[in-house]
Amino acid sequence: MKTYDAFPEPIGSYTVGRTQMDFEYTASDHSKRELTAFVYYPSDSNEGKSTSTYMFPEVYDMLNEQPLISAYLEGKGFFSIDIKTQCYDDLALSGKEKRYPVLFYVCGGGGSPEWGTVLCTDMASIGYVVVSIGHPNSTMYKRKDGRLFNVSEDFSDAIMALSEDPGMQALAGKMEMRPDDETAAQMCRNVLTLPIIARVTEYSELQAEDVRTVADYLYKLDAGEQNSIFEGRLLFDIGLGIIGHSYGGLTTAMVCRDDDRFACGIGLDSGAFGLLGSDLKTPFLLLFREPNYNMNAIIGANNSMETYYFSVDRVAHLDYCDIVFTSVNEELRGERDAMEMRNLVTDYTKNFFDHYILQKAASVESLAYDGVDLIKKTSNK
């Protein structure tokens, strides 16, 4: 298979800076949450610096300690971290605009906040500030203070229990590749009422709380409560945007549902766990492979704002993150060229956020990619 020694050049004209921040807070379940976040942002010069390291080697090493990963791969290669990024650590914020809009990125369960580097860099290169968080228990990361956090056994057990649940297995066997709307919505309801779903949802709810906490902090940075390059430079007028892959897509939807500061969201090959009966009250886009419409149809059925469903053929689940470029295992990849897949995800993301956050005329419905079909656009207003 084709391998890459560098991520693609960003789509925009800005040089991309990246900085890391650590956070601590007490969550609603009284647990102490110790997070980290990588913030990608527009800059005017790389200041002669070398590009940022992609992932810390010690974080990559933790991957083999995860029960789910080791059980699935069992000695096989997964992905490489020996790749050149297109961002630079701790640059000055660009002076070209007074303020810059803000997005959040949520990686998939078991992943790392760096797994969205290509998309985050692309969006920062066109003028967005993008925040990618390392979430305790459900992701792996190294904090700025040097401490390592891996996926917990409880989270791994919950995901494994879902995959082995007899009810889930029975429903999965009945999922149609392109169901009609009513059939998909009913299948989704059947999945969401399985008892095992509550256990899986618990971690996503905490991730959503992490996002809201970091959003609080950004508002404080903008207000000048701490010294920061972002003081007075963040654009909150229309609202924040958020995008999540896989398990991170659940978090994305929950944040849109529960926090009025978020104007819109995107789920990449994600489901609807924890969202039964939920009105997201924000425009939402789902980009996925079949038969995933069976897993997320309830979102559009309940949402009072626009919900876009785009089905993408010839892709694998991990093609929606950096593994499209870093994979060393053909089993993890779909059939689409890596650059085509990157362009597809970035185009839909850019057009969606440009329209709903920057209020530009950009439209996701105007995009044309072979094998990408708009199943449905709904609004229950």
From TrEMBL:
Alphabetized InterPro entries for the sequence: AB_hydrolase_fold (IPR029058)
Top-level taxon of the source organism: Bacteria
Keywords noted in UniProt: Hydrolase, Lipid degradation, Lipid metabolism
GO biological process: lipid catabolic process
SUPFAM superfamilies linked: alpha/beta-Hydrolases (SSF53474)
UniProt GO molecular function: 1-alkyl-2-acetylglycerophosphocholine esterase activity
PANTHER family assigned to the protein according to its UniProt record, in alphabetical order: PLATELET-ACTIVATING FACTOR ACETYLHYDROLASE
Name of the protein in its database record: Choline esterase
Species of the source: Paenibacillus riograndensis
